[in-house]
Fold:
Amino acid sequence: MATITNIAAAPSKSSYHRLDPAHLKRRHRSEWFYRTSGFTAILIGISFLCMIITSIVWKGWSAFLQTNLTLEVFLDKEQINPDGRTDLITLHKGNYRQIARNSLYKQLGFSKNPPLATRRQLNKLLSRGVDVQIRDYVLSNPSVIGQTIKIPVLAHGNVDAFMKGSISRNTPSDRRQLNDQQVEWVDKLHAGGALYRDWNWGLFRFGASSQPETSGLRVAIIGSFFMMLIVIVLAVPLGVAAAAYLEEFAPKNWITDIIEVNINNLAAVPSIVFGLLGLSVFINIVGLPRSASLVGGLVLTLMTLPTVIIATRASIRAVPPSIREAAFGVGASKMQTLFHHTMPLAFPGVLTGTIIGLVQALGETAPLLMIGLVAFVVDAPSTPLDPSTALPVQIYMWATSAERGFVERTAGATIVLLAFLIIMNAVAIILRRYFERRW
Amino acid sequence: MLFTVLVLIVFGFVAFIAGVARAKAVAKINSNAKMHSRIRYHGTYCLIWATIPALFATLVLSAATHYTIDVIIKTDFPRDVRQLSKSKQAVIMGQVRFLSNKIKNLRLYKDISARKAEQILKAKSVIVGDSPPFYIIEAAYKHASLESLSFWIIIGVTGAFSLVGLLLALARIQPRLKARIFVETTMMVGLILASIIAVLTTIGIVGSVLIESINFFQRVSLDNFYLGTVWDPRFTSADSNRGEGQFGFLPLLWGTFYISFVALVIAVPIGLYAAIYLSEYASSSFRCFAKPLLEILAGIPTIIYGFFALISFGPFLRDAGAMVGLNISSTSVLTAGMVMGIMIIPFMSSLSDDIISAIPQSLREGSYGLGATKSETIRRIILPAALPGIVGAVLLAASRAIGETMIVVLAAGIAANLTLNPFESVTTITVKIVSQLTGDLEFNSPQTLAAFALGLTLFVVTLMLNIYALYIVRRYKEQYD
Structure:
């Protein structure tokens, strides 16, 4: 406004009509400045988004591939059940690791017993989980004992990293996780077709493990699934009911004002404080087990509740009053109007709000750390009371683990989490498009 | 428990059908008297009587039996076990429950002794290696049989409540019964209870955090906590009973504010300019394309930002700093602050966008009419009018930044430094809450309770920021509506 006043207050009549060109140029420059810096700000924001996504996909795509090794395994009777018994306990106790190692020695052309130093080097090509893989194979089919069979097993994490190129061939041998001798063996196996890369089902099938190649997201995915289920079962009915009461029935007095302010503020309470609540109320006072997905689900429910309530209230408010008045006019009670007319019309908004709340809950990490979901859980939980973890917590645990091989897994887990979120968001958008109604 | 609830759902369905049938019969008999409520409401009336009292009975009984069983099991423990601390007993109870679950799943509590059960558990490789002391197996065995007993008691009592409720309700069905009124009142009570839960959550937060904090402040004085400059909680090992450690809050507060400040320095200008461009300059097609993209940034979970900071951004800053001769540690104020800034950009931009869009068009047109350019209108008209709202948005963003956890846990470091250097690592309130509470904890030690005192402070600070921000935004909004 100052520029305009300046012109108006200009002393001579001539300059009032003829604008000063330098002044005009300055005004145009300022125009250009605003436009450009606004555009730049948006570009910066979007480029940050691209940076994050690319860096994670770049680091993580290889986690979906895994190097496997086809071993010609001689299932030696001596190592499994010399006494010929085939009950579960005997079969469990077989020395499958030795079987796998012997097969590897043979496959690389060594006699039965290479020198100890060489054996040590050779053993490091196989994953630590190789005995479990062969054992499970034998357990599912005990008649194969004594035969020689081709079984695909996991290669060691270092071999995997070498095959994917994250351990470089050009690094000097003493600073490389695989020495020259091992690289030679890997090349030999690779050339013979025994070593190959395959889709990494293990990422979804394994639980926690200290070895990157045998650790997976199974426990985390099941835990997150339980939590989402609990949030849906609890937060949706409670949130919708609370919203319906506050919007349609609540008298305007100080109590409802408090509830109102309360809900708005709950939505902005730092998530970690909800974790403290969960720890002290659900675990310490009620006595629910630590590390259980039930407690996680309850905490996430409390966090999601305000989101669901706010979304539901907004969509109930968007239903025009004429609908209600028509229902009252034909003699419906307040409750009938709500459940027969208003709610069905508000449903799409409730649905989108709920999915947005679920998306937040699925990505939430901090409160879950407080209630002990940071746990080393090997077996998949079968009920919400069993120890478990959650997807984002698993990412946190892998991200902070010292082992270098976990970086790739972490990025892979991040991609899985993002994929779930994208799917849920897409569902929300499609539902909104499908149900959208303009009054 | 879950099974009982499922049974109740089925039973409720049956009760509904029975109620409808009964009401139809009653209506037929009294065909001269008009029914007060529709048939459906009589069904629901029976459903409510058959399920809700029974549900309460189940809840109360489950809690009661659970508690009683624990007491019974604990009195059977050997004397030396009963004298252990509470948390150690809890660990033992955890073992007992685990084994008891396995025993129940294998149905071992019937007709065999605890010794035999132990052998079977070993054979099934539930117990691997050394078996726990025999009293634990005995307790687990007893636990399993008591649990199965209590299960049948609960089922029986629930069934009885349900049946009696249904019969009473069926007997009361008659034309004058105000079934609809009853059903609607019950629903109303349900709705009110649901909205009270939100309040209970707040009371729960304040109550639980406050009680533990008071507990903490009985051991560490208020001024030691809030005015201390050294954070060194010294996890006391079992043998030493010397110092409790120092709980100086100031380094954490400083770290929190410093990182939030860096985040706001990044997010406020970018977010604000983005909002101005989106609402004043952008064509509607560009807006449709850019706005959702920016909002994706808000939808990314913070753990992913944290991972990005740890794995890409931190090392990148460190290398970039090394090139120009700066020594930037890979977890630093700058790393955490900048990544947090990225996270807040969409928050800032969509809040400001809402505020700028809410300014009446007439103000803009008045300004254009006087010959002002767009940028002059923005600077002289729109920004002053939107200023209170923008201040509110900045405050909300600040409260977001202060309460943010995962980014700082992964990117800010854990050393409680009081430093001005943005290239060094500092720590925040949230990081310390996490590090005090993960891992094995002995409740009731100042180390654990400190987390609650920190949580209380965090809650109060963010609450005040939010209330003040909402107050500013609301007061400003009323001017134009």
